[in-house]
């Protein structure tokens, strides 16, 4: 017994914490990977959410051209006259119609990589939950059950949040 808890229950708690930590690391990796991808695609451009437009490194505005509901993307374009007279055009676009940018509505879970990370995180969290529930029904002493429930509640809460999806959609 460790601190009034059976050794097997204690090991199950430690293993569940380990699985949770790996799940959180996978979520962090997915989030970081997505932010880097978005950063490369629109590098140097600033998005103004309140006014719904992009600003290029030269200070020109890219206004919304259209939205594709099926692809969940908004397309923005700079004025052709602004781009064609810009000294940065050679490094920015080869189009004579102005620079084009896309803003994805689902900024986090829209790629296959992010989806993979989310599924793997959920599998690990479900495995941890199953392990803790098995220990809960296997051991009846109050100290064991209290320790298991203390970890089950936050674990289930995190799973529900993961199922709801990303916090910053659109």
**Shape designation:** rod-shaped
Strand and helix order: HEEEEHHEHH
Give a count of the beta strands, DSSP E runs of length 2 or more.
5
How would a textbook summarize the main sheet?
5 strands, antiparallel
Radius of gyration over C-alpha positions, nearest whole angstrom: 24 Å
Helix content: 55-70%
How many domains comprise the coordinates? 2
What's the rounded overall pLDDT mean?
Answer: 84
Q: In angstroms, what separates the terminal alpha carbons?
A: 50 Å
Strand line-up of the largest beta sheet = 1-2-3-4-5
Portion of residues in beta strands equals 5-15%
**Structural class determined from secondary elements:** alpha+beta
Total count of helical runs of at least 4 residues: 5
Low-confidence parts lasting 5 or more residues at pLDDT below 50? none
How would you explain this protein's 3D organization?
The protein has 170 residues and is an alpha+beta fold. It folds into 2 domains: 7-35 and 111-164; 43-104, no CATH class. The chain has helices at 7-41, 80-84, 89-92, 112-138, 142-164; strands spanning 46-48, 53-55, 61-68, 73-78, 100-104. It has a 5-stranded antiparallel beta sheet. It starts with 6 loop residues before the first helix and ends in a 6-residue tail after the last helix.
